[in-house]
Amino acid sequence: MIQWFPGHMNKAKKALIELMADIDIVIELLDARAPFSSCNPLIQNIIKYKKKIRLLNKSDIADDSITQEWLHYFKQQDNTEAIAGNMNNSNQKNILIKLCRNIAPHRNSFEKPLRVIITGIPNVGKSTLINQLIGKKSAKTGDLPAVTKANQRLIVADDFLVYDTPGMMWEKIEYPQIGLNLALCNSIGRNALDEESMALYLLDDMKLRYPKALMTRYKLKLEQLNLYSDELINIIGKKRGCIAAGGVVDMQKASEIIIQDFRDGRIGKLSLETPKMWEEWQEQFVIEDIKQQ
Ligand SMILES: Nc1nc2c(ncn2[C@@H]2O[C@H](COP(=O)(O)OP(=O)(O)OP(=O)(O)O)[C@@H](O)[C@H]2O)c(=O)[nH]1
Ligand SMILES: [Mg+2]
Question: Which residue spans within the chain are E strands per DSSP?
Answer without folding.
Answer: 25-31, 51-57, 80-84, 114-120, 152-157, 160-164
